[in-house]
Write a structure and sequence with these properties.
The chain is mainly β. The protein contains no helices and 28 strands.
Length: 349
Amino acid sequence: MRVSLLPAVTVAITFAACSQGVAPIGGGQPLPLLQPPPSANVRDAHRGYRVSVFVRGTDKRYNPDPIVWVNGFLFVAYQNATGPTGNGGDSTIVQYNRKGSAIQTIKVPGRCDGMRWNPYTNLMWITVNEDANSSMFTWDPTSGSLVHYAFSSAKHGGGYDDLAFSNGMAFVAASNPTLSKRGINKHAAIVGVVLNGSVAQVSPVLMGDATAIDIPTQQTVKLNLTDPDSMTVAPNGDVLLVSQADSEIVWVHNAGTSSQSVSRLLVGTQCDDTVYATQSLGLLYVADAKRNQIYTMQGRFKSGGLYTEAPSDSYVKNFVGYVNTSYGSITPIVTGFGSPTGLLFVPQR
């Protein structure tokens, strides 16, 4: 396996239909399609990043996706052969220590595509079956208690995916929405979640066709979030949503309140997870679903900077890069992964 470093290049492209030209980002001039340059072996790393294998899956736990760091432990959700509607079996969640040794393992019915630590309750929240038949669980790794919840509704027609916690509230991406005849998502793209008995009660927070401020141009635009997917939280508490197939990142300021405001950024290629580097020294953990491995990227990061990954179905694919949040360009810093699907940052102790 070759994980490699790229010279200083930026991805700044958007896509129309397959045979069409490339559209400008933020009203700028059209750019040519970028072909990734030849890669160099990671041992020749002149940019200062060191990539290592942290853990490998097995023939009984594979297809890693969500990864979470809690109190010195790494939690990895392996989706195994389970499909996005829940067909095919269970997911396996493994808790690893800092040395990569497995501490405990649990089975979760369905396909785990969303997993986040709830800092308000000190429980892991888990969503399963992101395309349809979704439900969720809370898990206490200390006691082993796994509690199931049914979502109150799925009016958008699909399922529920990634989670985020901010300002005392819980949010979930409403994935795989049913679009109108004109291809518009008129349903909620983000919902708020409150647990009530055995029900996860959902309410709309951000509509798929909401208005937003386009960051590069500062113009008001109409969103069409056709593929709500990954979420994260900015250092200031903003909730970020990646609409993957739309090559778009959305920031929701004061999410779920009367003063909520929305901004968006087109990034030119499909992205999966995003994460902020909270300081310059630390580790990026990268889940590679295709190679069934978790990598660590060690180096000097931009403090407060936003990082993302592009999976194997993106045009410029299989890299981890830095996002310019003013213009939407992405600078790949490490490429050569099989298909990066999970991403998190852990500051250096």
